[in-house]
Amino acid sequence: MAVRGVGRLTCLSLCAQRNARFQRPVFRPLSCPGTVAADFRREEQPSGSAATGSEDRSPKKRFTEVQKERREQAQRTVLIHCPNKISEKKFLKYLSQHGPINNHFFYESFGLYAVVEFCQKESIRSLQNGTHTPSMVTEAAIPFRSRFFNLKLKNPSNQTSERPCIQSSNQLPPSSKKLFELLCYAESIDDQLNTLLKEFQLTEENTRLRYLTCSLIEDIAAAYFPDCAVRPFGSSVNTFGKLGCDLDMFLDLDEIGKLSTHKNIGNFLVEFQVKNVPSERIATQKILSVIGECLDHFGPSCVGVQKILNARCPLVRFSHQASGFQCDLTTNNRIALKSSELLYIYGALDSRVRALVFSVRCWARAHSLTTSIPGAWITNFSLTVMVIFFLQQRSPPILPTLDSLKTLADAEDKCIIEGNNCTFIRDLNKIKPSENTETLELLLKEFFEYFGNFAFNKNSINIRQGREQNKPDSSPLHIQNPFETSLNISKNVSQSQLQKFVDLARESAWILQEEDKDRPSPSSNQPWGLAALLLSSVTNSKSLAKKKNKRPASERIRSLLDSIKSNSTENATTANGKRTISTHT
């Protein structure tokens, strides 16, 4: 799906550029120290050394705890479209008459917006009670009492001189030039991978805006389903999302009509009077159809609404213009949320996981292995599962198998969704950290070598058991769905795309191996390491050397990989001693 939103990536000329539907919001975070934003940032940012895998031993929050706190935070938050010339001091003073403000920041997307979190929900009701529906001269306004406001100045000229008091802090990824400078002047490939992660990962402000957008959509859905919840899932919450990724959300109706046992006393049982339909799918289609109509006709800032109800998983797709997010709304998609929780756990167990996933995804995008257009290409989810599977193969393993996480689970972790066993331990603090200390440089190189030699023609990838298995069908690439085990998450991938992946993986392994022997000096301004792999053609930096080698490409790659295997247990260090590969475990 196309990226049309907050912090849309503009770096890497090697990445295919897509037409933007919205302007990229520029964030101006203005958070006070000691606020919940700082607490969430400490909780969600990776800790420890990504080069060694050593982790902070401080207690880590469960996925459900983070979700709950973020949702409660969003429910105390409002979105305000502000004039371009505004005094921040007067703005905050005006809002403070409705109650104390816990946090706020500004961003730009078709104008200036403020995200303001109050300390109490009652402050929002006070603000709403003092707000009126705008009067139109040539058009008619549809009255809707939301938490999305439009602020106007009674006397704009008085505030012009105070405009500079709003500090600007750009939260977009770096430009192509800046990114390559950062990568080329890093001290090691480990530093390169961590730099890319730091530049691309979701910021605190971006994350808060995603939860707020879901909360605003929930306000609309609650008109029909008062106890519903709209929850983000996928890349927005699993810690693998990059700036500009779409916002996937699902309408959770499970809490509606649940029996309250403490009030069910006596010989009578009261049920809601409801409409019946032939199947769960038809019910989902009807619900989404109505919600889609509401978003289209009554949802402030919701544009381009599409009801895609005949898909395998019916959804409503729309753009939230104020936030800049491209959104997909499904209903009761609990397995997807469980998958998000599993990835959250894997990403939190070892700081090298996210750095490696981000770099492999960026590498794949650079070479058009992944794309925003649905088709026969490998998806980011498939690549993430492949990285997890690879890390399960290390000695000792960096990540545990899903079955081992299931073994650690207790009674409260038990989860069966639509007949699928989705049980695994949810308390991160009960999972023993890995003793593996391999560097990111070694892991990146051996990831490419591993899958450059993987027997895709007969084996499948299975993170539940953490080992290669015979393929159950003839799909070129078979990656077992972690929970719906009869499904192949990469069934769409064609043989040609898989072969392209294998060829690029082999050449990338070769480039990294060759650089161990002859790394370009920083003064040469020649891309090296990860930067070299992200070029539109990985053969560019070695083109002259390859022209001298007249052997067929397949024969050259095979001999080079044999060389890599023979040297895989040796330490390789550059002349200046800054980049060292260690296989010590």
UniProtKB/TrEMBL annotation:
<dbReference type="InterPro" id="IPR043519">
    <property type="entry name" value="NT_sf"/>
</dbReference>
<dbReference type="GO" id="GO:0031123">
    <property type="term" value="P:RNA 3'-end processing"/>
</dbReference>
<dbReference type="InterPro" id="IPR002058">
    <property type="entry name" value="PAP_assoc"/>
</dbReference>
<protein>
    <recommendedName>
        <fullName>RL domain-containing protein</fullName>
    </recommendedName>
</protein>
<keyword id="KW-0479">Metal-binding</keyword>
<feature type="region of interest" description="Disordered">
    <location>
        <begin position="41"/>
        <end position="61"/>
    </location>
</feature>
<feature type="domain" description="Poly(A) RNA polymerase mitochondrial-like central palm">
    <location>
        <begin position="189"/>
        <end position="347"/>
    </location>
</feature>
<dbReference type="Pfam" id="PF22600">
    <property type="entry name" value="MTPAP-like_central"/>
</dbReference>
<feature type="domain" description="RL">
    <location>
        <begin position="63"/>
        <end position="131"/>
    </location>
</feature>
<feature type="compositionally biased region" description="Polar residues">
    <location>
        <begin position="564"/>
        <end position="585"/>
    </location>
</feature>
<feature type="region of interest" description="Disordered">
    <location>
        <begin position="562"/>
        <end position="585"/>
    </location>
</feature>
<dbReference type="InterPro" id="IPR041252">
    <property type="entry name" value="RL"/>
</dbReference>
<dbReference type="GO" id="GO:1990817">
    <property type="term" value="F:poly(A) RNA polymerase activity"/>
</dbReference>
<dbReference type="GO" id="GO:0046872">
    <property type="term" value="F:metal ion binding"/>
</dbReference>
<dbReference type="Pfam" id="PF03828">
    <property type="entry name" value="PAP_assoc"/>
</dbReference>
<keyword id="KW-0460">Magnesium</keyword>
<dbReference type="InterPro" id="IPR054708">
    <property type="entry name" value="MTPAP-like_central"/>
</dbReference>
<feature type="domain" description="PAP-associated">
    <location>
        <begin position="443"/>
        <end position="486"/>
    </location>
</feature>
<keyword id="KW-0464">Manganese</keyword>
<dbReference type="Pfam" id="PF17797">
    <property type="entry name" value="RL"/>
</dbReference>
<keyword id="KW-0808">Transferase</keyword>
<dbReference type="GO" id="GO:0005739">
    <property type="term" value="C:mitochondrion"/>
</dbReference>
